[in-house]
Amino acid sequence: MQHDSPLQQAKRELRSTLLEQRMALSTGRRHLLDRQLCARVVGFLSESSGVRVSAFWPFRGEPDLRPALIALHEAGRQVHLPVLLDSSMQFRRWTPTAEMQPNQYGIAEPVAGAICAPDDLNWVMMPLVGFSAAGGRLGMGGGFYDRAFASRRSASGSDGPALVGVGYGFQEVDSLPVQHWDVPLDAVITDRGTHRCRDFAL
């Protein structure tokens, strides 16, 4: 029987606490925060030149960015959503009329559409359970984003897409337990504002 390391146990306990807080949001509060987040995501990307954007479909209390996805599509961006294949993640082109179906975790994915390799994306809007100002990200624990963007593990790396966490302001923590496979964020967008964790070109 394999036991978690103290670091993994700490991450699991923190994840549980933060997920409980996220799920406890009232419907009215959630809608308000999601409107603020959508406006910030669209505003952030309106200043960039990259065309290929990946975002995410809401799951287990994650922010609902669907209005932002529609706005980005109408502005001429190529919007993609993650698609899980076994232990790997690909990114499929999405449009407002795309047919969606749930994957093995119950997360909606586009059924059809052109596939974009992770490193060919310009911007990746990543869901998160928790984050730190230093760019640490706590996800759901599956490691899909960490594997897809393993080339971005170096804090000084500049190749590949910019990785931007999107979540609620209360999900910020002072520090996160970090393991060697964890990929750092370039920036974080919350209802409270946008924070750059390291330099990158718009």
Describe this structure in words.
- The chain has helices spanning about 5-25, 25-45, 65-75, 145-150; strands spanning about 50-55, 80-85, 90-95, 100, 110, 115, 125, 130, 135-140, 160-165, 185-190, 195.
- By secondary structure, the protein is an alpha/beta fold.
- The chain has one domain (about 10-120, about 145-195): NagB/RpiA/CoA transferase-like (Rossmann fold), CATH 3.40.50.
- Strands 6-3-2-1-7-10-11-12 form an eight-stranded mixed β-sheet. Strands 4-5 form a two-stranded antiparallel ribbon. A two-stranded antiparallel ribbon has the order 8-9.
- Helix 2 packs parallel to helix 3 (about 65-75).
- The longest helix has 20 residues, at about 25-45.
- It is globular, with a radius of gyration of 16 Å.
- The protein starts with 5 loop residues before the first helix and ends in a 6-residue tail after the last strand.
